[in-house]
Write a structure and sequence with these properties.
The protein is of the alpha/beta class and 266 residues long. The protein folds into 2 domains: 135 residues, Rossmann fold, CATH 3.40.50; 111 residues, 3-Layer(aba) Sandwich (Rossmann fold), CATH 3.40.50. Helices cover 41% and strands 18% of the residues. Strand 7 and strand 8 form a beta hairpin. Helix 2 crosses helix 3. The chain is globular, with a radius of gyration of 18 Å. It starts with 6 loop residues before the first strand and ends in a 9-residue tail after the last helix. Bound molecules: D-glutamic acid (DGL). D-glutamic acid binds next to helix 3.
């Protein structure tokens, strides 16, 4: 009798969590994956905190009841920096969150000038500021909140790229050149942003390292599931949009590239 695969639930407000999913799936290709995109609530980055916590608990709670995962990855900085503690208090399943990679960024920066690029909500949260107090280690850290990049990433994956000028405007604050030291590392503190890394590189005033935390998240998941034997055969990943939307042909093609078949209409 083959072992049942572990079920991993990946959760985000939209398609950004796919950048985390691809790393986790590479680390545990034998697991069964359910990806929940709460696109009915997108974007999370401009919502009042109390209502957003309630929404996240509701959506994640329903997904836990329905899919009985062995582990939940909150593949969203905006949700993790706000609701991870509440989720852990409420549900017994282990959670892996996604929070700004300030410690590794400051450790690797040679110029000791780093930027954190996230949603306006993530960069203004006490959680993020506490990470800076604890781990900035003599680094100057610029907090850059973007009102639009997550939507740009959704558009890009859906086949509608935005203009270079629009990207330049959103990332401009990351690039600081002062006291003879330039920013050399930018933390991608929103899971949507790695979908735009090539656009960022093409529109940056100088080269920097764009730090994506997804490989570290995948290592954490693999570590938590290390005692779980490989499942076989691997199950086909499933994606659910809370709006019930049927993806456009371009988005369906992009999802197929990640191994998902289009979700059935609900
Ligand atoms: N992907 C989400 C994050 O990592 C945010 C996008 C949104 O504003 O909903 O922060």
């Amino acid at each position: 009798m083959p072992d049942a695969p572990a079920t991993i639930l990946i959760f985000d407000s939209g398609v950004g969590g796919l950048t985390v999913y691809r790393e986790v799936a590479a680390a545990r290709p034998d697991a069964a994956y359910v990806y929940v995109a709460d696109d009915a609530g997108f974007p999370y980055g401009n919502q009042p905190e109390a209502a957003l916590i309630a929404r996240i608990i509701d959506v994640v709670g329903q997904a836990i009841t329905q899919h009985a995962p062995d582990l939940v990855v909150v593949a969203c900085n905006t949700a993790s920096t706000l609701a991870l503690a509440d989720l852990r208090a409420r549900f017994a399943v282990p959670f892996v969150g996604t929070v700004p990679a300030i410690k590794p960024a400051c450790a690797q920066s040679k110029t000791k000038r780093v930027a954190v690029l996230g949603t306006q909500a993530t960069v203004s949260r006490e959680y993020t500021r506490a990470l800076i107090r604890e781990f900035a280690a003599g680094c100057d850290v610029a907090l850059v909140g973007s009102p639009r990049l997550a939507s740009y990433a959704e558009a890009e994956l859906g086949g509608t790229p935005v203009a270079d000028a629009a990207i330049k405007t959103e990332i401009a604050g990351c690039f600081v050149d002062a006291d003879g030291r330039r920013t050399d590392t930018v933390v991608l503190a929103c899971t949507h942003y790695p979908l735009l890394t090539e656009r960022f590189k093409a529109n940056a005033p100088w080269p920097v390292d764009w730090l994506d935390p997804a490989p570290a998240i995948a290592r954490r998941v693999a570590d938590l599931l290390r005692t779980r034997p490989p499942g076989s055969p691997p199950a086909t990943p499933r994606i659910v949009f809370t709006s019930g939307r049927v993806p456009s042909p371009a988005l369906a093609a992009a999802l197929a590239g990640y191994g998902f078949s289009p979700p059935p209409p609900v």
